[in-house]
Automatic annotation (TrEMBL):
Family note: Belongs to the HUS1 family.
SUPFAM superfamilies: DNA clamp
PANTHER family according to UniProt: CHECKPOINT PROTEIN, MITOTIC AND DNA DAMAGE CHECKPOINT PROTEIN HUS1
Protein name, as recorded: Checkpoint protein
Role: Component of the 9-1-1 cell-cycle checkpoint response complex that plays a major role in DNA repair. The 9-1-1 complex is recruited to DNA lesion upon damage by the RAD17-replication factor C (RFC) clamp loader complex. Acts then as a sliding clamp platform on DNA for several proteins involved in long-patch base excision repair (LP-BER).
GO BP, sorted A to Z: double-strand break repair via homologous recombination; meiotic DNA integrity checkpoint signaling; mitotic DNA replication checkpoint signaling; mitotic intra-S DNA damage checkpoint signaling; nucleotide-excision repair; response to radiation; telomere maintenance
GO cellular component: checkpoint clamp complex; cytosol; nucleolus; site of double-strand break
Chief location: cytoplasm
Cell compartment(s), UniProt: Cytoplasm, Cytosol; Nucleus
Pfam families, per database record: Hus1
Alphabetized InterPro entries for the sequence: DNA_clamp_sf, HUS1, HUS1/Mec3
Record text on subunit structure and interactions: Component of the toroidal 9-1-1 (RAD9-RAD1-HUS1) complex, composed of RAD9A, RAD1 and HUS1. The 9-1-1 complex associates with LIG1, POLB, FEN1, RAD17, HDAC1, RPA1 and RPA2. The 9-1-1 complex associates with the RAD17-RFC complex. HUS1 interacts with POLB, HDAC1, FEN1, PCNA and RAD9B. HUS1 does not interact with RAD17. Interacts with DNAJC7.
Keywords from the UniProt entry: Cytoplasm, DNA damage, Nucleus
Length: 284
């Protein structure tokens, strides 16, 4: 079992650091799956206890100049690691001026991801800074537990407003309640709403647009119009939503929210060769 990779391009290193930063803000611990073509950061808490799920997929060719992987067996060319993303982020933050960065799987006192940065030096000698990040190697018999979260049949999918705008709204609302109603329809409208015994507050967004897979009735019939304006809604823990919005360093080109009424809300952020999915289950 071997893994080694190298980043030379400064922009790629910066982008990779931003993604790890996002992951570190979403979870204290996650699973890192390495394959020949992609890297996956995964989190799958127990939904029954109100846990969230995350799935972040990166195309390795968009970040690494060299990428070599030998899995546990010829017919299983993959490696699964338990990782504390904050530890990886700390290592990456010290390498932002590096001429190159190498990451490899090593065996020290325990399995480690060793990050070695070739830093600029005033002398002719190179200056290499090395970080050993402890990881846990997940045995093959447990790999089946780490699969992409299943996606339910959603009632509505809608493009999100600018994430910074949405975050500012949530930051104000969180002082009023622990829970929030998120609702949207097939007419490009979305509402963020709080209702308590003392106060009722809502923010409305219009003309957001719906992804092309959202069915619409093109004949303009009354039934079609009613279907498009019907709101699907979900009650969520406002702190989980705030954490998701506060974590974002991905700068997505597209951000989509999908609602399965009274079950879950699914966010997906897309940016070039990176996709981040985040599921927040409904409450009560």
């Amino acid at each position: 079992m071997r893994f080694r990779a190298k980043i030379v391009d400064f922009g790629c290193l910066n982008n990779f650091t931003r993604i790890v930063n996002t992951i570190s803000k979403l979870t204290k611990s996650c699973t890192l799956q390495l394959t020949v073509d992609n890297l996956y950061f995964m989190l799958s808490d127990k939904v029954a206890s109100g846990g969230v799920s995350m799935w972040c997929e990166l195309s390795q060719g968009s970040f690494f100049d060299e990428f070599q992987l030998e899995g546990m067996a010829p017919n299983a060319n993959e490696i699964y690691l338990e990782l504390i993303p904050e530890n990886l982020l700390r290592a990456l933050k010290t390498t932002q001026n590096a001429k190159s960065l190498k990451i490899k799987l090593t065996k020290k006192h325990c399995p480690c991801l060793t990050v070695a940065a070739d830093l600029p030096s005033l002398s002719s000698n190179s200056r290499v800074v090395t970080h050993d990040i402890p990881v846990g190697v997940i045995p093959r018999k447990l790999w089946q537990d780490f699969k992409e979260p299943s996606v339910p049949d959603f009632d509505v999918s809608i493009y999100l407003p600018p994430l910074k705008t949405m975050k500012n709204v949530i930051d104000r609302m969180k002082n009023l309640s622990n829970f929030l109603v998120l609702e949207a329809n097939k007419n490009g409208e979305m509402n963020l709403r709080i209702e308590t015994e003392l106060v009722s507050v809502s923010t409305h967004f219009k003309d957001l647009g719906n992804p092309p897979w959202v069915s619409t009735d093109g004949d303009g019939s009354k039934e079609g119009s009613q279907e498009r304006t019907k709101m699907a809604q979900v009650h969520v823990d406002i702190k989980k939503l705030q954490q998701f919005l506060a974590s974002q360093q991905v700068n997505p080109s597209k951000a989509i929210c999908s609602i399965a009424s009274d079950r879950t809300v699914h966010f997906i952020l897309l940016h070039e060769d990176v996709s981040l999915q985040y599921f927040i289950p409904a409450v009560g």
